[in-house]
Amino acid sequence: MAARAREKEPPDLVHQNQIFCETVRKELRCQKLHTEYGVNPLKRVHTITRKPMSWHDNIEEPADAKFLNLIHHAALEPTKKYTEPQTESQEIGWNTTHLISVDRTDRRLYFPCRNTEITKYMAAMWRLKEQSENMQ
């Protein structure tokens, strides 16, 4: 107990310098310099309106075809960008074509919504209930 009660001595300058050098070495080991930048395909590009009286904003510049293609490609849905799913969650719903054609006259596969007297009555009751709640 007596050893814990004794206060620690402050570290000397040599010890502090060693700690600092070790910290810098660890940071430099984990750093990576990025020199190539691209457009984030997940973020929408917003245009800012120009000032009507500024001369440099009114100069028409030719459109960069490579940049436009990159933006249009980033906006495509995944099924048009890739030939196969890139993640496990994309596998669900990747093939959206119907396995069989929809025949509305076939009663085995087509079940349309039907309105009977009771469903019309309950729809009217729900509508009145929502209107009365919105009025309060």
Tell me what you see in this structure.
With 136 residues, the protein is mainly α. The N and C termini lie far apart (70 Å).
Q: What is the C-alpha radius of gyration, as a whole number of Å?
A: 33 Å
β-strand percent reads under 5%
Low-confidence stretches: none
Report mean pLDDT, rounded to a whole number: 84
In DSSP terms (H or I, runs of 4 or more residues), the helix count works out at 6
Helix fraction by DSSP (H/I, runs of at least 4): 40-55%
Describe, in short, the structure shown.
By secondary structure, the chain is mostly helical. The chain contains six helices and no strands.
Task: Give the helix/strand layout.
Layout: H1 2-5, H2 13-30, H3 65-75, H4 78-81, H5 88-91, H6 117-135
Provide the descriptors you would attach to this structure in a database record.
single chain; about 140 residues; mainly alpha; 6 helices
